[in-house]
Amino acid sequence: MSWINKILPSGVRSQESEKRSNVPEGLWKKCVKCDAVLYRPDVDRNDDVCPKCDHHMRIGARRRLAIFLDQDTGEEILADIEPVDRLKFRDKKRYRDRLSAAQKSTGEKDALVAMRGELRGLPIVCVAFEFNFHGGSMGYAVGEKFTRAAHLALEQRAPLVCFAASGGARMQEALISLMQMAKTSAVLERMKLQGVPYISVMTDPIYGGVSASLALLGDVNIAEPDARAGFAGPNIIEQTIRQKLPKGFQRSEFLLEHGAIDMIVHRTQMRDTIAGLLSKLTHQPLRAATPEAPPDEDTTDAEGEPEEVLEGESESESEDRAEDQRREERKDKLEENASVDD
Amino acid sequence: MNPNYLDFEQPIADLEVKIEELQLVGTDNEINIVAEIENLREKSTRLTEKIYANLSSWDIVKVARHPLRPYTLDYIPRIFTDFDELHGDRHFGDDRAIVGGLARLGERTVMVIGQEKGRAVKDKVLRNFGMPKPEGYRKALRLMELAERFKVPVVTLIDTPGAYPGIDSEERGISESIAQNLAVMSRLATPIVCIVIGEGSSGGALGIGVGDHLAMLQYATYFVISPEGCANIIWKSTEHASDAAEAMGVTSSVLQELGIVDATIPEPLGGAHRDVDLMAERIRAHITAQLDALEQLPLEDVLTKRYQRLMSYGN
Predict the structure, then answer these.
(1) Which of B106, B298, B72 is nearest to B198 (CA)?
(2) Contact B314 A241 (CB under 8 A)
(3) Residues of B in contact with A232 (CB under 8 A)
(4) Residue A184 in this model has a pLDDT that exceeds 60
(5) Residue B24 pLDDT level (bands cut at 50, 70, 90)
(6) What per-residue confidence (pLDDT) applies to A22?
(7) CB A169 to CB B175 under 8 A?
(8) What is the pLDDT of residue A306?
(9) Contact partners, residue A164, CB within 8 Å, separation at least 6
(10) Which of A28, B158, B177, B242 has minimal Cβ neighbours within 10 Å of its Cβ?
(11) Distance set, CA A315 to CA A322, B79, B221 (Å)
């Protein structure tokens, strides 16, 4: 706080600071990784990936489903499943009160949102974890919703896609949470035996009980770049082995190197990659990608590698925005090309 | 403090010391020492009964981790005969924290798989204190699939402080190895009976713990996170472990109420380590009865029931 703030009457001061904090909330966003101040619409257009450093920001379940499913096809399912406090768990606070607080702050009943929708015209069932709800932890409600969504996928022989982000099993539901691991794994085994595809996408972070069940049982396991995923948290491992962990330990790249996942996919490429995989696995054609904006006479080369498309960086913000738009269009063209190939 | 007794057992330990002393005196004294010893023995039994009737959840966790508590390798020769240990996951190595092999239970062949903590220091190191790595779970999976092919029922004995949290464990995919076991055990076409004999810690325990029947010894414990771990996260201090144990419900009585555990096998007075033979006999009788019942049913029904039971968790 500067000296001038100190001598200002408190009413004026708080108004000032409110005003100041309101501006970045609305139009500007700071990247937690590279500290760049970003123009919010740029970030939104880029699926919440930092246009400067490519950091994949954490996003909520509904935003995830919105950017993944075909526009306006997502229809929420199993919304009535609620958490149950069978143990009447209480520590410093009652679990019930913690749940109400989480429900109020996130607007969700628990940490998983499920939808039926389409991906490039392919009917799918898709679930996403809400990390802001109790760290995306899995208790009864999450396990039950996942399992019922999977049964729905089985019934309709529609692929299941899961975006996991979770600290693990939920302590406050104790062994009931642990058993959700067995429950979700059992239904996924059924899908496997009946040949209905399951794609697991790991997003930052995934640990414990979710890692040791549904997240690693995909027919195809995918991770977003630089996501952390593992069984035991780094602190616990460091305490156990009493040495520093190597750089990049438990990151997506580590998982790929050690054979735990099939691929690392950039968020802006997620739709096309998974659509392509599912089309191949289900022998069904995809609908041509519809560009979000009508293409103009941009002469940008559409043959470029997707990585190249995303890595460009420019100095000024306005240039960035223009660049972003060009990227979007290039991406759309890529999508068009891809659909022609199919 | 006597290391063979837990903190809340110290009054019993004191009495036992007195009895021992009297026995030594007994040889060169004529007073009615025999009656006195008898008297003290009875007192010790009553005291043990009293203490054990009022154990807290945290006390039970301590009994489950008692240094003298019988482990898988103490039980195998007492419950089964003709045990042929089978080694290795065929990919990486042989994890000694999980022991498995073919054995006989009476007339019937079974595949027995259990976690082993190791008794002496050297043995504990060899067994990694009962903390399996991916190759342990993959060995278990291999043995279960072998059992399935030859129509042999599976018996698992659960006793682990958790899957090993280490760099090599993560590199070789500890999460995947556990997840795979959960998936396959949910449909393995042979009866599976699981017994928690000591400490059932989280995913590391569940990795050999999915089946048709789940029993716990009276003073065994089963939790999603250790009471110390839970206390550390919520209270930021392991000193609240007993509160955490109470809140999470880590004992067979609570878990039976929740419908997760099917049966509790009573332990000898003062815990399984006071009479290992008696404990083993009770486990043997329990497994035999369960397998008899399961083998009465068509296998298809067993598998349907197993799946329905998995789906019902938490309802």
Answers:
(1) B72
(2) no
(3) 163, 165-166, 169-170, 174
(4) yes
(5) confident
(6) 47
(7) no
(8) 39
(9) A129, A136, A200, A201, A202, A203, A206, A210, A214, A215
(10) A28
(11) 12, 74, 60
How many of the other CB atoms lie within 10 Å of CB of B183? 27
Residue A208 has pLDDT above 90, yes or no: yes
CB–CB contact B234 A182 (8 Å): no
A33-66: per-residue pLDDT in tens?
Answer: 999 999 999 999 999 999 999 999 999 999 999 9
pLDDT category at A313 given cuts 50, 70, 90 is very low
Are A331 and A67 in contact, with CB atoms under 8 Å apart? no
CB contacts < 8 A, A to B, total 177
ipTM strictly over 0.85? yes
Taking the C-alpha atoms of residue A234 and residue A228, their distance in angstroms, rounded to an integer, is 10
- Give the count of beta carbons closer than 10 Å to the beta carbon of residue B126: 13
Tell me the nearest-neighbour CA distance from A30 into chain B, angstroms.
Answer: 30
Q: Taking residues A134-160, report their average pLDDT.
A: 98
Q: What backbone phi and psi angles, to 5 degrees, belong to B106?
A: 65, -125
Percent of chain A scored above 70 by pLDDT?
A: 77
Better-predicted residue by pLDDT, B88 or B4: B88
Do β-strands B192-201 and B154-160 pair in parallel, antiparallel, or remain unpaired? Answer: parallel
Nearest CA in chain A to B208: A182
Contact A181, A209 (CB under 8 A): yes
* Residue from A89, A185, A237 to probe the interface with B (highest B Cβ count within 10 Å): A185
Q: Which residues of A touch B172 (CB under 8 A)?
A: 258
Taking the C-alpha atoms of residue A216 and residue A51, their distance in angstroms, rounded to an integer, is: 29
Where are the alpha helices (H) located in chain A, listed in sequence order? 3-7, 10-26, 40-45, 61-68, 95-106, 140-156, 174-194, 208-211, 234-241, 252-257, 270-282, 306-311, 317-341
Three-class HEC string of B77-141: HHHCEEEEECCCCCCCCCCCCEEEEEEEECCEEEEEEEECCCCCHHHHHHCHHHCCCHHHHHHHH
The predicted pLDDT at position A150 comes to 98
Residue A138, both tokens: 């899995």
Which residue is listed with tokens 């080369």? Answer: A301
pTM of the model: 0.87
Q: How far is CA B278 from CA A285, B53, B116, B265, in A?
A: 66, 20, 20, 11
Contacts of A175 in chain B (CB under 8 A): 222-224, 248-250, 255, 258, 260
Instruction: Provide the pLDDT for residue A326.
Output: 53
C-alpha angle with apex A254: A188 to B98, nearest 5 degrees? 60
Provide the residue type at A263 as one letter: M
Report CB contact under 8 Å: A178, B203: yes
What is d(CA B304, CA B294) in angstroms, rounded to the nearest whole number? Answer: 12
Of B166, B179, B234, the CB nearest to A237: B166
A68's CB contacts (< 8 A; 6+ apart) are A119, A126, A128, A161, A163, A270, A271, A274
Residues 6 or more apart from B13 whose CB is under 8 A from it?
B1, B2, B4, B5
Q: Which residue of A has its CA nearest to B315?
A: A140
Q: For residue A21, which amino acid is it?
A: S
Task: Supply A61's token pair.
Answer: 């379940």
Q: Tell me, what's the pLDDT at B3? A: 80
A263-264 and A28-30 beta bridge pairing:
unpaired
pLDDT tens digits along B233-256: 999 999 999 999 999 999 999 999
